[in-house]
Design goal:
Length: about 325
């Protein structure tokens, strides 16, 4: 019985000591408390297809522009090749303007050579006519031939211009035919580009919803990430201190440092709830209804990643 009595008092003494330590632990006063959260970003697929590569996993730190996932683009590349072939086919039937121009230029050159020869012959006959070595009829005939040669050159030039106009119109009409295909080509090229999913900002991967080999569609979420460098603390403050806060106000942030103390930092109030909330209770009495709190959001720099999503924190105005 004596041994049992000693054990009983020893147990009571231990409990009292623990209680004394707990009671003596210093708890700094604070004006509000809550949990840290970060703005979450859901990254979705922009094109349909099989996921050929999911490059990240939950908990990975990713940088802006980093490739997150790849979606199979085999069908898109085949469609692109088909459209390119159709465009080349249309271009092959394009009228050759240079060949047509060269043909008329050759005809004009020949006619010009003939005209020069006739003009020399006309001058010779006219000189002979002055010494009565040629008749007037010969002079008239050679002069008519010169005029006809000149007219022939003008006719060829007119034909050339008409042909140029016709071929130019044909080319414009022909060149317009591939335009719808070019628009389709731009669309497919953009779809191929969007099959490479990249990170919009730096942050950490919170959840991955799809794996390699799964089929995805436009708008289907692939993963969720959050930027932890600029984290926020959503805290609730009692109504009696609400009048002491204002937007963009600097406040003191306290978090447990793991050794019965607090790590102290500073933050800035970025949002204040416009209305009060009742303290969450399963049963509300008139006394409880008087206990109202206001929600505020405090932005805190987190370059070292000290603060985690869901971590408890306190604020001091």
């Amino acid at each position: 019985m004596k041994t049992d009595s000693n054990s009983h008092w020893s147990l009571i003494w231990t409990i009292l000591c623990i209680a004394g330590i707990s009671c003596n632990k210093k708890h700094p006063d604070f004006d509000g408390s809550g949990a840290f959260f970060a703005t979450e970003i859901v990254i979705s697929a922009e094109t349909a297809g099989i996921i050929t590569d999911m490059s990240v996993a939950e908990g990975d730190q990713i940088a802006p522009g980093q490739t997150i996932a790849l979606i199979d683009t085999t069908l898109l590349h085949l469609q692109k090749s088909q459209i390119l072939a159709q465009i080349r086919s249309l271009e092959s039937g394009l009228p050759d303007l240079h060949t047509q121009i060269r043909y008329f230029d050759d005809q004009i050159s020949l006619a010009q050579t003939k005209l020069e020869h006739l003009e020399k012959e006309r001058d010779r006959i006219q000189n002979l006519s002055k010494v009565n070595a040629a008749t007037v009829q010969q002079v008239d005939e050679i002069s008519n031939q010169v005029v006809q040669a000149q007219m022939q050159i003008e006719i060829i030039k007119s034909q050339k211009q008409a042909q140029i106009s016709t071929i130019s119109n044909q080319r414009q009409s022909h060149l317009a035919r591939p335009l719808p295909y070019a628009a389709q080509l731009d669309l497919i090229s953009e779809q191929i580009k969007r099959a490479v999913i990249t990170a919009p900002v730096d942050g950490i991967v919170l959840s991955v919803y799809n794996r390699e080999g799964e089929y995805t569609t436009p708008g289907k979420p692939l993963l969720k990430m959050a930027r932890l460098q600029d984290i926020k603390l959503k805290a609730y403050i009692p109504a009696h201190v609400f009048s002491n806060i204002k937007l963009h106000q600097q406040v003191e942030i306290r978090t447990d440092d793991g050794s019965d103390g607090y790590y102290i930092d500073s933050g800035r109030i970025t949002w204040i709830s416009p209305k009060a909330e009742f303290t969450p209770k399963s049963v509300q009495t008139p006394d409880v209804r008087q206990n109202q709190v206001y929600a505020v959001e405090v932005s805190v720099a987190n370059p070292e990643g000290r603060y985690k999503i869901g971590m408890y924190g306190e604020i001091k105005l």
